[in-house]
Specification:
The protein contains ten helices and 15 strands. By secondary structure, it is an alpha/beta fold. 42% of the residues are buried. Bound molecules: phosphoenolpyruvate (PEP) and manganese (II) ion (MN).
Length: 341
């Protein structure tokens, strides 16, 4: 971190300021120029508050040189993180993994049939919302604890690990045997929830917030990792822009950029990113080509009658077609589509 001081700074102010950093085990190098004095901070500055420094009356400006996220950065951990749940169900590295299932769990028959269908087509994880974050309090809120029970039943029938969204730390007790906990876009900056998830030894699928920057997203991942849980999977699900013809705008460039910045796996959600089932297949191929480690896709047996997000859901037949294309394309991008063993 570089701090440029104002020309009128006194020696005593510099000394006191340097002592403050010394107390935090940070070394300070000083360069005195004709116009200004510059301090260079050496050591782990991830806990240093940039705003606090900027507020000092004798500070002209401050600039970070190293990244504010540490555990998630490629510099800290150069090799790819691979999250492995056994049976070939892994995300990261050379794997291309597909998570599929309905937006919401609606009944035992629905989730069990869909679990069989998506497994047959090649998915290695089953998704399904039990607790649903809906814009309207009058809309279907999900089957809640009963929905989790039905997901467990579908897992027992197929062996597929389950991925489902948590909305409150108060529900953690219900999520003990969930294989991958999803943090939805609306909760990406629910820091108290992230801290609780940091205490678990369980993969967390962290969706990008509706209007969050890549750095904010990586800082949210850092919250989970700082607590000791390093099994974080990032999910790009589209961001809010001025465009209204698609539900969100899929930030495809975020994928290769994240691959440079972090070792964490990156999956793409083409369903919420577009809001239109006709756009899902091309965005799946684009995500693979851009370097994603996998996809999370909404599939419904009867999309027009879905309780939630039918317009963006693929039928099992459409999903099977997408999987066939991905199987053929994956080797061209140095990826191998996961196979459930
Ligand atoms: C979902 O996956 O069903 C969901 C609600 O997604 P998001 O948080 O990305 O809107
Ligand atoms: Mn949905």
């Amino acid at each position: 971190m570089i701090i440029v001081l104002k020309p009128n700074v006194s020696e005593q102010q510099i000394e006191e300021f340097s002592r403050y950093f010394g107390e935090h085990s940070i070394r300070v190098n000083k360069w005195v120029g004709d116009q200004s004095t510059v301090l260079g901070l050496l050591g782990d500055t991830s806990a240093v508050d940039v705003d606090f420094i900027q507020q000092q009356e004798f500070v002209e400006r401050v600039q970070r040189v190293s990244k504010p996220y540490k555990k998630g950065s490629r510099e800290f951990h150069p090799t790819d993180t691979v999250v492995d749940l056994g049976h070939g169900c892994c995300i990261g590295g050379d794997n291309f993994s597909v998570i599929a299932g309905p937006c919401s769990v609606e009944s035992e028959e629905q989730i069990t049939l869909l679990a069989r269908d998506v497994k047959q087509a090649g998915a290695t994880f089953l998704r399904g919302g039990a607790f649903k974050p809906r814009t309207s309090p009058y809309a279907f809120q999900g089957m809640r604890a009963e929905g989790l029970e039905l997901l467990r039943h579908a897992r027992k029938e197929t062996g597929l690990p389950i991925v489902t969204e948590i909305m409150s730390a108060a529900h953690l007790i219900l999520f003990e045997d969930v294989d991958v906990i999803q943090v939805g876009a609306r909760n990406m900056q629910n820091f108290e929830l992230l801290k609780e998830l940091g205490k678990l030894d369980k993969p967390i699928l962290l969706k990008r917030g509706l209007s969050n920057t890549i750095e904010e997203w990586l800082m949210s991942a850092e919250y989970i990792m700082a607590g000791g849980n390093e099994k974080v999977i990032l999910c790009e699900r589209g961001i809010r822009t001025f465009e209204t013809m698609t539900r969100n705008t899929l930030d495809l460039a975020a994928i290769p950029l994240l691959k440079e910045l972090t070792h964490l796996p990156v999956v793409v959600d083409p369903s919420h990113a577009t809001g239109k089932s006709s756009l899902v297949a091309p965005m799946c191929a684009a995500a693979l080509a851009a370097g994603a480690d996998g996809l999370i896709i909404e599939v419904h047996n009867d999309p027009p009658r879905a309780m939630c997000d039918g317009a963006q859901s693929l039928t099992p037949a459409q999903f099977t077609e997408v999987m066939e294309k991905l199987k053929a394309l994956a080797p061209a991008f140095d990826k191998t589509l996961n196979i459930f063993k």
